[in-house]
Known about the structure:
Blueprint: H1 2-8, H2 11-28, H3 32-41, H4 51-63, E1 67-71, E2 77-81, H5 83-94, E3 109-114, H6 121-133, E4 137-140, E5 143-146, H7 151-160, E6 167-172, H8 178-184
Antiparallel strand pairs: 1-2, 3-5, 3-6, 4-5
Helix pairs in contact: 2-5
Amino acid sequence: MMAYLKRRVGETQRKILLLLLAGLALGLTRSPKKHWWILKQIPKEWDKVNRQTLERAVNSLYKSHLVEEKNNKNGTTTLVLSENGKRRALQFNINKIEIKKPKTWDKKWRIIMFDIPEKFRGLRNSLRFHFQEVGLVELQKSVFVFPYPCHNEIEFITELYNARKYVRFVVAEKVDNGLHLMKKFDLC
């Protein structure tokens, strides 16, 4: 079924899923800072979608069980992401995630550690893969480091894999092999 959905979900449908996911995230967060971050993640190409294409895409998403209709008391209908739709939207967004590097380094290290039981080896490998994909450097097994703010991106990846209870995020001012790390990140 997932392979079928992967082939069948088009670009407009991906935009719809991401927009619905952003709406869900906005509703669940209380932080104004996170609100702005979420709003910045919504693709600007959304405006380019024409109405007919939009209607066809929504219909297709409904038929593929990625969205559900919710009938409101006032007679209107709201389109919401199904659980499967949430997973698909997160999967689409993970492929485009990148950590923005500020012009100047604040001289702090972001250390991400995880301790995942052996029975969840696939989860551990997936986290390791995605952390490396966004530019983190492995300090030692299951410990990664990055010199720039990346809390939101790490939180997103952690949420995607439902691994929050295994992951820790630390901001440090000094690492004993800091010079070596500075060279790895071209900070010297």
